[in-house]
Amino acid sequence: MPAPTHTAAPAHTAAPPKSRAAAHAVLKTEARLFLREPGSLFWILVFPTLLLAILGLIPSFREADPSMGGRRIIDLYVPVALLLAAITTGIQVMPAVLTGYRERGILRRMSTTPVRPAALLGAQITLHGAATVASMTLALAVGRLAFGVALPEQLAGYVLAAFLTLCSALALGCLLCALSPTTKAASVAGSAVFFPMMFTAGVWGPVQAMPELLQQIVQLLPFGAASQALNQAASGHWPGWSHLAVLTLWTLVLGRVARRRFRWE
């Protein structure tokens, strides 16, 4: 009788290391596949900074505006570029990848192997999150070196706001994937959400330049709150706790709903 007990224990303790090794292998494989997608890399890494560079070439955008406390429009568009990187990743790129895997039955087949589908989901979130961080860093560097935009004066608050922004964008992406049965449906839903989110982020006009009533409404949405938080940190102030709370709440709500509605098949 004792023999089966002793043989079962090592198998149970050996499972976690095998699971971690399998997850690491999935991450490496997905990283190679991710780097082979020039379209995704362009929209995440290049597009936000390219838009910033185009706007920076407009002479009036580089002139100080007394109505904005002597700041320039291009100064306000650097945080917008960061938000655009997060929006593009979470709404346009990542959902299409995950729904494609589910639609082709990859997640279902993985469930019969030692690699759990959650490992693939974690790998995609990690890779897209890392690419977004790289895109944000590139936008900050180009803004500073090409157009003389000052680096954030409240760096810790800026990093925190950017991190919460990324979390909310990825949570929104997971929700779109959870609610979209096919890649085409994810693309349609993503496009329907993409443009309103760009508006709230200030792509067509900085949130700080919107009428006061519109600002108050936009700040209740994740990217409107993120725009204000990043702008405050860039000016040397700690981001408003109300803005950080909005970002945190949206992340938790979107993530919870996505987890409950997500289907591997």
From TrEMBL:
<keyword id="KW-0472">Membrane</keyword>
<feature type="transmembrane region" description="Helical">
    <location>
        <begin position="76"/>
        <end position="98"/>
    </location>
</feature>
<feature type="transmembrane region" description="Helical">
    <location>
        <begin position="185"/>
        <end position="204"/>
    </location>
</feature>
<dbReference type="InterPro" id="IPR052902">
    <property type="entry name" value="ABC-2_transporter"/>
</dbReference>
<dbReference type="Pfam" id="PF01061">
    <property type="entry name" value="ABC2_membrane"/>
</dbReference>
<keyword id="KW-1133">Transmembrane helix</keyword>
<feature type="transmembrane region" description="Helical">
    <location>
        <begin position="119"/>
        <end position="143"/>
    </location>
</feature>
<dbReference type="InterPro" id="IPR047817">
    <property type="entry name" value="ABC2_TM_bact-type"/>
</dbReference>
<feature type="transmembrane region" description="Helical">
    <location>
        <begin position="41"/>
        <end position="61"/>
    </location>
</feature>
<keyword id="KW-0813">Transport</keyword>
<protein>
    <recommendedName>
        <fullName>Transport permease protein</fullName>
    </recommendedName>
</protein>
<feature type="transmembrane region" description="Helical">
    <location>
        <begin position="240"/>
        <end position="258"/>
    </location>
</feature>
<feature type="domain" description="ABC transmembrane type-2">
    <location>
        <begin position="39"/>
        <end position="265"/>
    </location>
</feature>
<dbReference type="InterPro" id="IPR013525">
    <property type="entry name" value="ABC2_TM"/>
</dbReference>
<keyword id="KW-0046">Antibiotic resistance</keyword>
<comment type="similarity">
    <text>Belongs to the ABC-2 integral membrane protein family.</text>
</comment>
<keyword id="KW-1003">Cell membrane</keyword>
<feature type="transmembrane region" description="Helical">
    <location>
        <begin position="155"/>
        <end position="178"/>
    </location>
</feature>
<dbReference type="InterPro" id="IPR000412">
    <property type="entry name" value="ABC_2_transport"/>
</dbReference>
<keyword id="KW-0812">Transmembrane</keyword>
